[in-house]
Design a protein that fits this description.
mainly alpha, 9 helices
C-alpha cells in the first residue's frame, strides 16, 4: 500500500505540474534577466509553490470538514477538474494559456514573477492543489503516507527547480515537437488518473 501510494502521488503530481513542460515558459518569463537573477527567480518560485502545495496537503481536509464537504464529493469534483486539465494538455490549450500568462507577466512587468505566474498558477495551480488535497485524503490520517506525500511534493518542486536551472538546455534537447508530444502523453496519463478519482469517489458514496 505504501509503495502504491508513493508511486501514485509521484506520478500524479509530476504529470499535473509537468516540470519539463514548464521549462520553455520559464525561459519566456525570464527573458532579458541575467543568469544570477534567473536562478533567484527559480529558487523563489520553487519555495513559494512548495509551501502552497504542502499547506494544501496539510490543511485541505480540515478545510473541507469546516465547509461540510465530504472527501468523496471532493474526489469527484477534483477528478473532473483534473480531467479538464488533462483535456487541455492533450488538445494543446494549456500550452497556449501558459504562453499567454508569460506574455502578460512581461507586459505588466510584475514585481515578482517568481510568485506570478511561475509559482501561481503554473506550478501550484488548481490542478496541483486539488491533487495534493485528494492524495492527502487517500492517506486517511496515516502519518507515514502523509510524510511520503510531503516528500513527493518537495521532490516535484525540486524537479521544477532543476528544470528551470537547465531550461535552456532542456528547450534545445526536446525541441518544440518533443515538448508537444510530451504534453499530449502526460495529458492522457492524467486523464486516466482523473477518471480513477471520480470512480473512487462514486464508490465511496455508494458504499456509504
Amino acid at each position: 500500500m505504501v509503495l502504491n501510494f508513493l508511486i501514485s502521488a509521484l506520478v500524479t503530481l509530476l504529470v499535473v505540474v509537468d516540470p519539463i513542460g514548464l521549462a520553455p515558459t520559464f525561459i519566456s518569463i525570464t527573458e532579458g534577466l541575467s543568469a544570477k537573477l534567473r536562478h533567484q527567480v527559480a529558487l523563489r518560485a520553487a519555495v513559494i509553490a512548495g509551501l502552497i502545495l504542502i499547506g494544501s496537503a496539510l490543511i485541505g481536509n480540515w478545510l473541507l470538514d469546516r465547509l461540510a464537504i465530504s472527501l468523496s464529493a471532493f474526489r469527484i469534483a477534483g477528478g473532473l477538474l483534473l480531467f479538464s486539465i488533462a483535456t487541455e494538455m492533450v488538445l494543446g490549450v494549456r500550452m497556449r494559456r501558459e504562453g499567454e500568462a508569460a506574455e502578460q507577466a512581461l507586459e505588466e512587468r510584475a514585481r515578482n514573477i517568481a510568485a506570478f505566474p511561475l509559482a501561481i498558477p503554473l506550478m501550484a495551480g488548481p490542478g496541483a492543489i486539488t491533487a495534493s488535497v485528494l492524495l492527502a485524503g487517500r492517506a486517511d490520517g496515516d502519518w507515514l503516507l502523509l510524510v511520503l506525500l510531503l516528500a513527493v511534493v518537495v521532490a516535484v518542486v525540486a524537479a521544477c527547480l532543476v528544470a528551470f536551472l537547465l531550461a535552456a538546455r532542456i528547450g534545445q534537447l526536446i525541441g518544440v515537437t518533443g515538448n508537444i508530444v510530451l504534453s499530449r502523453l502526460l495529458g492522457v496519463i492524467l486523464a486516466a488518473l482523473a477518471v480513477q478519482y471520480v470512480v473512487d469517489g462514486i464508490r465511496a458514496i455508494l458504499a456509504g
